[in-house]
Amino acid sequence: MAIAARDFRELRLDGMSRNFGVVNALKGVTLNVRRGEFIALLGPSGCGKSTALNCLAGLLTLSGGSIWLDSTRIDRLAPEERGFGMVFQNYALFPHMSVRKNIGFGLRMQGVAKAEIERKVDEVLAIVRLGDQGDKLPGQLSGGQQQRVAIARAIVIEPPLVLMDEPLSNLDAKLRLEMRAEIRRIHELIGSATIYVTHDQEEALSLADRIVVMRAGEVRQLGTPEDLYDRPAHPDVAEFMGYRNQIRSHAAKSGNLLNVVIGGATLAGTPVDGAGEGDVVAAIRPDDLKVTAAGALSVTVESAQYHGNDFYCLGRSGDGTELYFRSETKVKKADTVRLAADPSRVLVYSQARP
Amino acid sequence: MSERAMDAPAERLPLRTRLALYELDGVTLLVLPAVLFVIALFVYPFAYGFVLSFQPKVGDWLANYAKFFSDPFLYDTIEATFRLAIPATLINVLLSIPVALRVRRMRNRRVLTTILVIPITLGTVLIAEGLLNYLGPQGWFNRTLVLFGFSQVRLVHNYTGVMLSLILSGFPFTFLLTLSYLTGIDPSLEQAAATLGAKARARFRHILMPLLAQGLAINLCLSFVQTFSVFPSAVLLGAPAGATRVISIAAYQAAYEQYDASMASAIAMIMGFCQLAVVVLILGARHFVYRGSAGGGKG
């Protein structure tokens, strides 16, 4: 039998909350996860995403709410009784055990026969492509290899749910891209549900089927990567999704759109969270501000970073508004350029981010 | 780099740079006082005592050692000392593990640590004084026993008294050492073991113990050396002519009752050899345990 996740239909978090003293680290998170799904918990540090993961693993006790695996309530079970696989940020490999011993540890704890352990360890070593490294100690491996061992150790027990706590944050940029693809490949191979904690929106967008954006212990938005990228429901989600320009402005109705004043020019934008006339925040991604001679918005370039196929620029308009934009043509400091944006790419929110 | 280039005088590095390559600089001089201190107060006296032990008052150069090992009044002190030092060391170190495991998770660890450290600062003589008063024939403990109709127990001026004192004064030390080794083990290792299905007992056996073994070996060595040289409590709380006539008492009597510095040196050398033998034995056993870092990874 190949390594495959134990079968289940649904993992249900029902109002999961956790206090640390008077601090509410987690304020009632509700979420359903289906078998085979890849969920990313995304948010800045301190938003409660790691707390949520530790609650799921059983390393933290809930102060309220419940967790259900199909019809079984599991939030009162000790971590060793839940049978979830967990990959830690620092890998947490047992330094005194060989790679094989590390990977086989979970099976040994289940009382699996020795020959069976050996067979499964071989199989999972092949999955993570570490076939010839089995007898080394973790300290003799590179960071990327250690990460693979940590993943192998978590999946060899065939858990219904794999929990990953910022597993790529200790790797260098190149390796991170490589391991990202590996994690998705392994997830699809074993068919478990994966819950992946990260603060990197790119990682979340590229890996997950659904993303849970968290802020201050609450779920701010839950949706597919496309939903979140195109239509963030909240200015702080927008900020996380790369809407770097967030300008306080004033809006006036114009059909289905809202006209907002930005840097002395009037741009048409799309209302998102029921924004109407009055004080609003307009959010625009630097990629969506296009340099064009017909643009309504005129800015003076303050800095331009060369990024290979384009320039990442900071401009300042006549009234002092700072705007980040990308330019495909070469621009220099002190140049004056005109910018325009498609109305569907100017998102207008009624409230500012706190 | 070719050898020729190294030899060429034109490329010879300045002295300061060459010293820097071996991490030697002005700050290194600060080690000097410590080196002088060690030479003056350890190396010289040790060497002096070693030579002195082979210059007995009467007889050939080995006479002191021959005398020691032919007189049961003298050689029995080795056994008496081991009978105190080994159990006391084991009790202290083994007891420190569960206590440290519990204390590690406490929030007001500082308070407890401070309370436990007080016996160290009091010193053995004060502890002996306290135990004599508390556990002696007229002490509270025996008075309470008599009050409830039990007979008195003899807890001082014998083996038990010395043992109690060794535990009281030695435990805080082993506890602090064990606690520091234990807190050096990455907590995520235990968490990882738990998520892999290991219950508390299995986590202790497969994760904590192997990672702690190295520290426990050092702890055993230090604790043993400390208890082996027991003197004040063996005299004050023990039976210095009987069951707790430890080797340091024999050395003391040779030096200050018989004024035989040469014999005293020989006894001190034998004592040192016993300590060294046990330390070598314990450190040798470390080969069988994991000796690397107790961290969870490179991160």
How does this structure look, described?
The complex is a heterodimer of chains A (354) and B (299). By secondary structure, chain A is an alpha+beta fold. Chain A is built from 9 helices and 20 strands. Chain A has helices spanning 49-57, 79-82, 99-109, 114-127, 143-155, 173-190, 201-207, 225-230, 235-240; strands spanning 10-20, 23-34, 38-42, 64-69, 72-73, 85-87, 161-165, 193-198, 210-215, 218-223, 245-254, 257-262, 265-271, 278-284, 290-291, 297-306, 311-317, 322-327, 336-340, 347-349. In chain A, strands 6-7-8-3-9-10 form a 6-stranded mixed sheet, with helices on both faces. Chain A has a 5-stranded mixed barrel with strand order 11-12-13-20-14. The radius of gyration of chain A is 24 Å and the shape is elongated. The model of chain A has no long low-confidence stretch (mean pLDDT 91). With 299 residues, chain B is mainly alpha-helical. The radius of gyration of chain B is 26 Å and the shape is flat. The mean pLDDT of chain B is 89. At the A-B interface, helix 2, helix 3 and helix 5 of A face helix 10 and helix 11 of B.
Unreliable runs of chain A:
none
**Largest beta sheet of chain A, briefly?**
6 strands, mixed
Number of helices of chain B: 14
Annotation field: number of helices of chain A = 9
Helix content of chain A: 10-25%
Strand content of chain A: 35-45%
Run of helices and strands of chain B: HHHHHHHHHHHHHH
- Total strand count of chain B, please? 0
Sheet with most strands of chain B: none
Strand order in the sheet with the most strands of chain A: 6-7-8-3-9-10
Low-confidence segments of chain B: none
The number of distinct β-strands of chain A equals 20
The helix content of chain B, as a percent range, equals over 70%
Radius of gyration of chain B over all CA atoms, rounded: 26 Å
